[in-house]
């Protein structure tokens, strides 16, 4: 284990530091269990479906009853390969299953089949944007978190404390469910960065479809390893917060843990390596057990399973069946639509959003405007109403027409928002009909507009004089008056140009 620590130590050389908390640098590494979306278990034919009656889906192999033999599920291996390809990892041509020995009520067979020395997925990197600051200070930084490995293993059963008084029930349905445990280097430097990493990882596994990502059902659970140190000091001792299954709790748990560790150190106490649990009700972390070392598990290669061999050919076959990855799609959006990298990254947060954007952009040939509307007005609406994009009442074809009417100067941006609202609330479905019905057409009659401009100039001698004296802001007041007089139908840019020309002349 000390060797591992030295490796982690060495790998932190030259990494940027994050925001200090009371003079301490925060160091975080993640271990995430992603439940693989196979229909049957990792070494048996029992179903993995969630929610069945307790103990109806655990078969003899899952319980390792004498005389049974585990058989590797090909689908689980292929999902691990897909993950490795998605994050630029090396896929081991030969990896080994090992027994991790420990007894726990939900693991009555006394060992978990996992991978130890040679995991199937090795290395890799997760890249994402971290939003920092608020309002005028808002900024985003590109981050990358390196993966150590991702290995295949089986899940254990579940202890049920709630349904029994003074007793604990054991449900072994989950025993043998395939998991991919994804382990990072200790590369994260704040709770915000940790959450952004977890969100990105969640996006990747659901995008490629190897995990349903359901956090309430435990399909995607994160363990956060947290330590603090004075900048430049060796890595501090970590404590591992287990089973974080919501992004909100993740941030709260890490923030609490960081404050707690700093307080301990400031009070002269050493941090002891431990496994802790977060209690959402109190907002605190509490030690559950002191941490076992690898040596405690007496790992040894599982004699019932041969090495897992993956040929180059198999990898290529899997690669050929994979859909376009978010990263690749984002690069394509930059290349083909000329979008800024940030837009491309945001739009590829989900397949459905990306598809919506692309359909809109193609239909109106205005990619940047399509991106602005999808990331702006549309996302805002989806968020406030808490619905997915599939349920959005405004369809890409309608948004494309709407954008077309802004570009051809039929309506202003403000008017376009009113049309969008009408479409959204089902107040009509035809963009042009709504524009007509609401009388939102911009004034294209320059003669009429000029008349309004002249009237406003004549009636506002004070503003005119101020503008002529060099106060540019006085122009805004005039523009405002003209817009009002035109009942919002004048084109603000046209008004601006006309005013400047007249006042200069
Ligand atoms: P184990 O398998 O016993 O849990 P590992 O040594 O493989 O432990 O590390 C597990 C996780 O802990 C990794 O994600 C790693 O990045 C992280 N980690 C290791 N050292 C530290 C540290 N000092 N502070 C924070 N995280 C750490
Ligand atoms: Mg661990």
Annotation, overall tally of beta strands: 17
Number of discrete helical segments: 16
Number of separate structural domains: 3
Query: What does the overall shape look like?
Result: elongated
Give a short account of the largest sheet.
10 strands, mixed
Task: List the ions, cofactors and other small molecules found in this model.
Answer: adenosine-5'-diphosphate, magnesium ion
Return the average pLDDT rounded to an integer: 93
- State the end-to-end CA separation: 81 Å
Structural class: alpha+beta
* Rg, Å, rounded: 29 Å
Helix content: 25-40%
Uncertain ranges: none
Strand content: 15-25%
How is this fold's topology laid out?
Elements lengths: L1 H10 L13 E11 L38 H13 L3 E2 L2 E2 L1 E5 L9 E5 L5 E2 L2 E8 L6 E16 L3 E3 L8 E3 L6 E7 L6 H17 L12 E10 L9 E6 L2 H20 L7 E6 L4 E7 L9 E2 L6 E2 L2 H10 L4 H12 L3 H7 L3 H14 L2 H19 L10 H12 L5 H12 L6 H7 L8 H14 L1 H8 L4 H13 L6 H13 L1
Parallel strand pairs: 13-14
Antiparallel strand pairs: 1-11, 1-12, 2-6, 3-17, 4-5, 4-16, 6-8, 7-8, 8-11, 9-10, 12-13, 14-15
The structure holds adenosine-5'-diphosphate and magnesium ion (MG).
